[in-house]
Amino acid sequence: MSETSKIIATLRRYIIAGLLIWIPLGVTFLAIKLIVDLLDKSLVILPEHLQPGSFYGYPIHGAGIILCILIVLITGMIFTNLVGRKVVFGGEFILTRLPIIRSIYTAVKQLTQTVLTSDENAFKQVLLVEYPRRGIWTLAFQTGEPIAEFNDLTGSALLTAFVPTTPNPTSGFILMLPKDEVIRVSINVEDALKFIMSLGVVTPGSQPETTSKIIDKAISAHEKRHNTG
């Protein structure tokens, strides 16, 4: 190998190593910045003379996070007593009678309750189901029991399962499947979600590799492709 080729190979390794370090850091930073900037917009509900920027002469990034936490805490304190619950009931009574708003509010409320409450049927079990046809298996999550009428109409004991899409598990399909046609697996929901979001690369129970090991593997794979080409 000539000196020029050695220099190019060395530079290539450095670039790959740098990208493997900075891309995850950059994406993480941008995601956090997006969340902080979004929450900082909540400061507009305060009078201008009460906003943090008016005291120091420049905006205080992250102040919106504190404000949002305080709003959530105060709201919870107010609406957990009897008077607050009556106010909530009255507000929901109005919202559930507005044609378009009713559908949006009800769907979001039910989703929020599913995520935040400890319902025993909410994502309590990871399943293997045959989808989209027999012989092809995919991961699914049991979300509950279907309406009893569905069992009577189909003549089978059904369960409701959510089949998420990859790599975005927040979308997917709701299936009602016979209980005897699904396989219950022992992995937990968190490991199953990692498996789905990583496109099957991160398997349940596997330990994350160190950054140095990932860099070595990436450089080795790149050099192998380069030599083959």
Structure, described:
The chain has 229 residues and is α+β, with helices and mostly antiparallel strands. Among the domains are: 1-80, no CATH class; 125-197, SH3 type barrels (Roll), CATH 2.30.30. Helix content is 55%, strand content 13%. The protein is built from eight helices and five strands, in the order αααααββαβββαα. The chain has helices at 3-40, 52-56, 63-79, 82-95, 99-116, 148-154, 189-197, 211-228; strands at 125-130, 137-144, 158-164, 172-178, 183-184. The protein has a five-stranded antiparallel beta sheet, with helices on one face. A hairpin with a 6-residue loop joins strand 1 and strand 2. Helix 1 (3-40) crosses helix 8. The longest helix is centred in the first third of the chain and has 38 residues, at 3-40. It is flat and about 80 Å long. The mean pLDDT is 81.
List the helices and strands and how they pair.
Layout: H1 3-40, H2 52-56, H3 63-79, H4 82-95, H5 99-116, E1 125-130, E2 137-144, H6 148-154, E3 158-164, E4 172-178, E5 183-184, H7 189-197, H8 211-228
Antiparallel strand pairs: 1-2, 1-5, 2-3, 3-4
Helix pairs in contact: 1-3, 1-8
- Helix-strand pattern, N to C? HHHHHEEHEEEHH
Lateral arrangement of strands in the main beta sheet: 4-3-2-1-5
| Terminal CA distance | 16 Å
Radius of gyration: 26 Å
Largest sheet: 5 strands, antiparallel
Helix/strand structural class: alpha+beta
Helix content: 55-70%
Strand content: 5-15%
